[in-house]
Structure formats: C-alpha cells, structure tokens
Amino acid sequence: MMGALAADWPAIAALVRRAMNEILRVPGAAIPGVLAPTIFYCGLTAVFGNLTELRGFATDSYQSFVIPVSLLQGAGFTGAATGVNLARDIEQGWFDRLLASPVPRTVILAGMVLSAALRALLPATVLLLVAFAIGAHWPGLGGLALAVAGVMATATAAACWGCALALRFRTQSAAPLMQAGMFVLVLCTSSYAPLDLLTGWLHTAARINPVTQVLEMVRQGFVAGVTWDGTWPGLLTLAALVSVLGAFALRGMRRMAD
Amino acid sequence: MSAIEARDLRRRFGDGVEAVRGVELDVAEGEIYAFLGPNGAGKTTTVRMLTTLLRPTGGSARVAGHDVVAEPGRVRRAIGVALQEAALDPLMTGRELLHLQATLHRIPRREGRGRAEELLARVGLSDVADRRVGTYSGGMRRRLDLATALMHRPRVLFLDEPTTGLDPVSRKTIWDEVRRLNREGTTVFLTTQYLEEADQLADRVGIIARGRIVAEGTPQELKAQVGKPHLEIAIAGDGHERARAVLARYGRELPATDGRLLVELSDGASEVAPIVRALDESGIAVEALELVEPTLDDVFLAKTGEHLED
Amino acid sequence: MVEALLANARVVAALGARSIRQTFRRPQLAAPIVVFPSLLLAVQTGGAGRAVELPGFPEVAGFLDFMLAGAMIQSCLLAGNSGGIALALDLEQGFADRLFAAPVSRFAIVLGRLAGTAALGALSALYYVLIGLLFGVTFEEGLGGIALMVLWATLAAIAFGSLAAALALRTGTASVVQGMFPIIFVILFLSNAFFPAQLMLEPAATVAQYNPLSFVVDGIRDPVISAVSGEGAAKALLSIAGFAALGFCASALALRRRLRHG
To answer: Phi first, then psi: what are they for C203, rounded to 5°?
Structure first.
C-alpha cells in the first residue's frame, strides 16, 4: 500500500498544484476568502466584545475567546470552496478528464482535500496576525500547533463535505448548501459565549454538536492553557468527521459512473 | 482481437430514458470507425460507456481487451479521450496541462517533458505553449485536447465530435492528424454529426439513431445500399427527345426535375465520358451536367425516414 | 407625457416581475437573503442572549426583540446586493443589450430591477415579522409599527439596490458585485444592527453612533422595543434618502458611461 501511495504521490502533488492556481493566478480571487474570516473576527470582537463583562466568562479578552470561531469558519469556507470548484470542473467537463485517466479515485480525492487543507492556512495566517495585533493572547507553541491542526483538519472535513455534495448534485448551484453546512456546524457551538451562558435551543445544540469539542480544543491555548483532557475530544471529533465525510465523498466518486 | 467490442450495450437513465438501446460493435485494431447520428442519438452516451465514464445498465463492452465495468483501470491506461467539450483548465498553460497528463499516466518526468514537446510541435502549439489555455481559440483548444489524449500513446483513441464548431481550416488540421495517428497504428473511434467527416475519415461508419445502430459498413457499402449514382443533364434548345433516346442506351431514366433529364448509372462515374461523347456525336447541346451520388444522408433518410442534415 | 409615463411604468412592472420570478426560480439567489440572516439571528440570539443583563442595555423583553431589526436590515442589504448581481449577470450574458435595444427608457430598465429588489425587501421584512411573532416578540407599536418597519425595509432595499446597481453598471461583472459581501458585513458590524452602539468596543462604538445605517436600524427597531418618534423617523428617512441619492446618481452616471462606450 505504501508503495502504491508513493507511486501516486506525484499525481497528488500535481493536482494540489493545479488547485492552487485558483488563488495564485486569478488576481483578487483569493481576497474575499482570505479576508472574510478576519473581517468577521474583527466585527464580532468589536460588536460583542463587552460580553466578557458577564459572569461566567473565563477570560476578559473576547479577541482571544472568539478567535477559534473565525479560524474554523475560514477553514470551513475554504473546504466548501473546494466543493464548488469541483462542481464547476464537473459542469465544464474537466473532471471527466481526470476520471478517464488511470489515477485511482482515492488519489483524485486526496489531491483535492489536501489542497483545501493547505489553502486554509492562508486565511488562518492573516487572521492570527490581525488577532495578535489587536491583543489576542499568544497561545504558546502547543496551542498554535493545535490551532493549525484544527484548521487543516476542519478544511479537510469541509472539503470532503463539499466534494460529496458536488459529486451528488454535479452543479455549482449546490454551493449554498456546501457553505451553509459548515457555517451551521461552526456557529452552533459555544461560538459566541461559554456553553453555560448560551440560551435556549443553542445551549442544547452546542452540547450535542461535536464541533464544539473542536472549537474548545482550538480555544484552550488562547484563553487558558492546553491540556490533554481539552484536546483529545477535539482530535477524536476531527478524525471521525474526516472519516465519515471522506467515506461519503469517496462513495460519490465511485458513483460518478452511475 | 477487436479493439472495441460491444454486445447489446444499453444505458437507461434515472428518468426512464433509454439513451442507448442494444448497440453492437466490433471495431478492429487499426481501424477508424465513425459513429454518425444527430444530436440525442446516443453517440456521446455510448462513448462515455466505452471510456468508463458511465456504467452500462445492460449488455457488455470491452476496449483493448478489457471489460469496461470489471477492469476500468486497465481500459483507462489503454485509451486516449477527447470529449465533446474541450475540457481544459483555462488557468493552466498548454505545456502545464500536458505535464499534468503525463503525471496522471505515471510517465517518468523526463520522458513526459520530452513527449510534451513532441506533441506540442505536432499539433502546432509550441509557440503558445506557455500561454494560458483561457487565451486559446477554439481550434487551438481542440488541438491541445487531442495532444493531451495522445500523451501516453493510447492504443485506442476516442474523439467525441472533434470538429464541431471549428472553421474549415482547423477541421482539416484535425482530420490530417487523425489520419496520421491511424497510419501509426492507433484505432480511432470518433462520433460526428457531419456526413463529410464520416465519409472522408472513416474506414467504417455506424449510423445511430434513437439509441440503435441502424446501418453499418464502409461509406461506399452504405451508399450503395440506397441506390446508384445518377447523371443530371440540362439540354439546350429542343434536343430533349433525342437526348432521351441516347441516354436510354446507358441506363434507366429516372423521374425528371426542373426540366432536366436524369439517368441512373450502373457503373458509376466511368460512364460519364461515354454519355457525353454520345450526346455530342448526336449533335445535342448540353447546357449543364452534374454527377449526383448517394450520400450518407440518403442512407440515414432511407433507414430512419429523416434527414441527418437540414 | 402621461402616456410615456404609463408605458415606462408598465416596463418597470414587467421587469420587476421578471426579477422576482428569477429569484424564486433560482433559490440559490434567494437563500442568502433570508436563510443566512435567519441562521445568524438564531445563533446570535442564543449565543449572545445574556447581553440583555449588561448594564446600559436597552429595556427589552428579550434579545430577539433587539436583534430582529438587525436581521431585517441585513436582508435588505443582501437583497440589494443580490439585485446588483442579477443586473451584472444580465450585462455579462447579453440580456441587458436586448433591453437596451428596445424602445424603453434606460432608467426604466434599472428601476425594474429595483422594483424587484423592493418586493424582496418587503417580503423579507414580513418574514421576520412572522418569525418575531412566532418566537414571542412584542411589537410595542402594534400593526402601525409593523407597517412602518416594512416600509423602512422596502425603501432601504431600494436604496441599497441602487448602490449595487451602480456597481453592476460600472463594472458589468457579477463577481465584483458578489465580492461586496464582506464589505456589507463590515458596514453592518460598524452599526448598531447587532448590538447597542454604546456597548460596543471602541473605535467601532463611535463609528456606529454616527453610521447612517444605524439610524435606519433604529427606525426599524423603535416600533418593536419602544415607540416611534418624529426625530427617529426623520433620521431614518434622511439616511435612506442619502443612500438612495448616492445610489441613483452613481447609477445614472454609470449607465450613461456604459451606453456611450459600450
């Protein structure tokens, strides 16, 4: 298996390089996707920053509290964009070219989701730089590593979700569904306030939503400190999301000929 | 061994439409086979099944000796595909696209780069190889599409309407390249809605309508099925009746149109010169003369009751 | 002259109807106008709902009462942007040329698009009123207040639509108009759409206090949480008029430029 993977690595690398063209060769195309999470982050901080006055907030820095929300949103949108690009490639016939080649379906999918994981680092970097500039706490190397891992894994899961939808519907019109899915998953968590301060349906939803674990995993470095107890649920959630959504996407690939 | 073999090949879509209804094919190695039919006849659906992009819902097919359903990977390694849309990434350059294709087919880097240069020269795109595909004309995209399909020296090349929308010069370039490939041993399966393309290029033609092959053979065999060539003669002055008597010696008179005389030629074009001499010797002045041969459209009309071309 | 006005009115109505039909036949255009703000409303209400306990927060029955206006204005902005995207698509795909080649007033063509946007603004406002009623919002000014909210939302949608139309006419590119999405949220965040201006962090708090959009939001919010005042209504109307004046002037200039240069 390792031999087969090594043999396919050049194909994966070539597909990742091709996917990067979208941001490298279309002037301005990357700007909305890169800046949007930062704009939302600054907006949320400016608007809701005084929520930390409420009893129950473990930090007095809303900038630090809300940063994982924007990190994961950025990752989610990058992943969804991968799905939209795939839908466009399907509509325009380019994807047939890949399918008619001897490259295994898993390799084609790996190329797409890996490109999403790498692309997600761009908005994340911009966001972190701005966040630190406006006073967010330094998370330490461990916290930063967890944040990066969380971003890349979320982008991977989101790309699998987007690709699964693209393969199912085969049209760019499914884009809102791809974006909305990630949007809902990330926001229906302890995104705006700690779990105990959430009200009504959101409190229930956030408790059930596994992405809350991912959010808290990424948040811990910025507001308190990294612990294993605060980390493993998030890692487990990410592994499960990538596995399940990856399986859907792969199934979609295999059913392209149906 | 046939290069392409299909037995009762069928494809029914989810909405109940059966686009391909029992296609039988036997394309020999080294042959140029043209699938001729109007839009919606089932040409593209058949090609997509043969190139493993669509699963048949009935029947079977083998390409280059491999079953398209059971051994799709092996089929893909043996085929080159240039589909209806010249599906190229507009953000990549021509050279990058060829390099990518080489990578996808696991061609070693150096060999792939060399092959890319060779193909770019062959299709006349060396000068624009570093320009983005988005800036290419339609003809250039088709040529690049063809080059991409040839990267790994496929045994069987599938071309789905390769010259649709191209100007006559570009069309001729593609035809010349197809002939050259075939001389080099590549089996070519092309679909087209252009009679001339099938007539000019193909060793054999399969005429498809409503998902079924309605006629198959060499262009000459097909045309012979619907009749013989005839001569249309416009006579000057009042020599009509005398001309009729002369022509009766050479063939059966056909119903006249527009005052012209029509005579069927049993032995084809070789009878034209003797007829002209005979008319001349009889002092009959000929105003106009036209040799009319059956076309593949006549074949299509005979088999389906409709014209292929309006 | 009356005949010409009537003819143009018919054109505006026909194009307005087309623009509404387009939106409902392409749900992916309508979804951002209603679905996205609804999601945000639901999440923000649940996530920041305890904000009503903060000292200085206006007297409200619940956070939703406060947030409803923010969701409405968000929809108005997005409806306007959506109209601009649709106009840009018409320009890109050549349909606008068909209209320009017809013997109709150029402005009627743009007004037709805005008529559709106005209808969307009104419909989305009614939708949020319904949401409010379903989830227990008390409309202090009753039916009259609701009518005023819908009126402000409709006029605001037209004003924002005219700005987006100007961008569409100037650039002729849908992706440019689409790229305004983050800018819309910048403007929203720098207003009192989501939170009382005096409780925001600086410098956003100061910007929000003077942002004309905040006056529009207040105009929509007052009938829900307090009472309609002459001063508040005047500020809302002037702000909408200011946006509309800017939008219509820019649209007229862009249209003239386009027709001159192609």
So the answer is: -85, 0
What pLDDT band is residue A2 in, cutting at 50, 70 and 90?
low
Superfamily, domain B2-224? P-loop containing nucleotide triphosphate hydrolases (3.40.50.300)
Is residue A170 within 8 angstroms of chain B, CB to CB?
Answer: no
Measured between CA atoms, how close is B78 to chain A, in angstroms? 9
pLDDT of C124-170, one tens digit each?
A: 999 999 999 999 898 888 899 999 999 999 999 999 999 999 999 99
The phi and psi torsions of B32 (rounded to 5 degrees) equal -105, 115
CA dist A199 and A254 (Å) reads 43
**What's the token pair of residue A43?**
């907006």
3-state secondary structure of B1: coil
d(CA B138, CA B135): 10
pLDDT in tens, A40-88: 999 999 999 999 999 888 888 999 999 999 999 999 999 999 998 999 8
Q: Read out DSSP for B36-57?
A: E--TTSSHHHHHHHHTTSS--S
**CATH value of B228-293 in 2.130.10.10, 3.30.70.1150, 3.30.70.20, 3.30.420.10:** 3.30.70.1150
Radius of gyration of chain C (CA): 19
Q: What tokens were used for B132? A: 């983005």
Domain boundaries, chain A: 31-257
Chains C and B touch (3+ CB pairs under 8 A): no
Question: What's the pLDDT tens digit per position in C246-257?
Answer: 999 999 899 888
Neighbours of chain B (3+ CB pairs under 8 A): A
Can you tell me the distance from the alpha carbon of A104 to that of A107, in angstroms, rounded to the nearest whole number? 5
Domain count, chain C: 1
More confident residue, B300 or C66: C66
Do the first three CATH levels of B2-224 and B228-293 match, i.e. the same topology?
no
* Residue numbers of the domain that contains C166: 2-261
Cβ atoms of C75 and C52 within 8 Å: the answer is no
Contacts of A14 in chain B (CB under 8 A): 99-100, 103-104
ipTM value for the complex: 0.84
Q: Report pLDDT for B86.
A: 65
Beta strands at B58-63 and B32-36: parallel, antiparallel or unpaired: unpaired
Greatest mean pLDDT among A31-45, B26-40, B229-243, C178-192 lies in: B26-40
